[in-house]
């Protein structure tokens, strides 16, 4: 497969569609479908939406802003990938979906104001674990992060019927992967 660099317009289109995709898929489903996970330190659909919402506030835009303002001089703050657990406590999935939708709209509105030219996409920042990273890499990672969590939700929710499919499980690798 050929390597493709970030294409900003399609990337932002994918990012813009994530909230609607999750909303259409998850809104008003029973907890039995949205709270199932794969064990300790794994995410349910509910957890994923909370995680995406938390990342929207504390990861993507703050890191992008830090890169454009300070380059590699000021490293990113570490990201707590489980912080959504406290943030989501007492909320419904529908409330989290609404919050995420609004946050993503604000994030993408901000990105559109940045005039991200090829030069600005090449600006580098400092990740606390990975070292030097570019704006382009951050934005591509944001897209892949969304897509990975969408795939994760499908995989985790599929496992609810792991036994119900009977012998067809042999033909459904989604039920045997983690």
Description:
- Helix 1 (8-26) runs antiparallel to helix 5.
- Strand 1 (124-127) and strand 2 (131-134) form a beta hairpin.
- The chain has 178 residues and is mainly alpha-helical.
- The chain is elongated, with a radius of gyration of 18 Å.
- It has seven helices and two strands; from the N terminus they run H-H-H-H-H-H-E-E-H.
- It has helices at 8-26, 31-34, 45-70, 84-88, 93-113, 118-121, 135-158; strands at residues 124-127, 131-134.
- Helices cover 58% and strands 4% of the residues.
- The longest helix has 26 residues, at 45-70.
- A two-stranded antiparallel ribbon has the order 1-2.
- The mean pLDDT is 93.
- The chain has one domain (8-27, 41-175): dinb family like domain (Four Helix Bundle (Hemerythrin (Met), subunit A)), CATH 1.20.120.450.
- The relative contact order is 0.17.
SS-based class: mainly alpha
Output the CATH topology. Answer: Four Helix Bundle (Hemerythrin (Met), subunit A)
Q: Based on DSSP secondary structure assignment, what is the total number of beta strands?
A: 2
Spatial gap, N to C terminus = 24 Å
Uncertain ranges: none
Order of helices and strands: HHHHHHEEH
Return the CATH class: Mainly Alpha
Secondary-structure arrangement, i.e. CATH architecture: Up-down Bundle
What's the number of domains? 1
> What is the overall shape?
elongated
Largest sheet: 2 strands, antiparallel
The CATH homologous superfamily corresponds to dinb family like domain
Strand and helix layout:
Elements: H1 8-26, H2 31-34, H3 45-70, H4 84-88, H5 93-113, H6 118-121, E1 124-127, E2 131-134, H7 135-158
Helix pairs in contact: 1-5, 1-7, 3-5, 3-7
